[in-house]
Specification:
The protein is 4% helix and 57% strand. It has one helix spanning 101-104, and strands at 9-12, 15-21, 26-32, 37-41, 46-53, 55-60, 63-68, 72-75, 81-85, 90-97. The protein is built from 1 helix and 10 strands; from the N terminus they run ββββββββββα. The longest helix is centred in the C-terminal third of the chain and has 4 residues, at 101-104. The chain is globular and about 35 Å long. The chain is mainly beta. The strands form 2 sheets. It has a 6-stranded antiparallel beta sheet, with no helix packed on it.
Length: 106
């Protein structure tokens, strides 16, 4: 597969998501406009996030950290995390296991 061939859906103002779904995991590629904020949240899924492009201010378990292209983050289940996109479009690749059934029900 190539990301260029996978349809994107608008999931919120300033956020587009593409998904590849397996039996027990999923990978999501998100294009997020500058200054979009994703609220601090938790979920039961283990998550790995790779920053493909742009700069993001993450809040992970109350600690702030700026991440940029090439950085990889690991979020164990139930770890509070959120993000603020900084001054340019951000592209993130998220891997979840188990897959996010809530994303599939949209």
């Amino acid at each position: 597969m190539n990301w260029e061939t996978i349809p994107a859906e608008r999931v919120a103002e300033g956020i587009e998501r593409q998904m590849v779904v397996g039996e027990k995991l999923m990978i999501c590629r998100l294009k997020i406009q500058p200054r979009v904020v994703t609220a601090v949240h938790t979920h039961e899924h283990e998550q790995v996030t790779m920053v493909e492009r742009g700069r993001v201010l993450y809040i992970v378990d109350g600690v702030e950290r700026i991440c940029s292209a090439g950085d990889v983050l690991h979020f164990p289940p139930h770890l509070p995390h959120g993000a603020t996109m900084l001054d340019e479009e951000v592209v993130l690749v998220d891997v979840f296991t188990p897959r996010r059934e809530d994303f599939l029900q949209r």
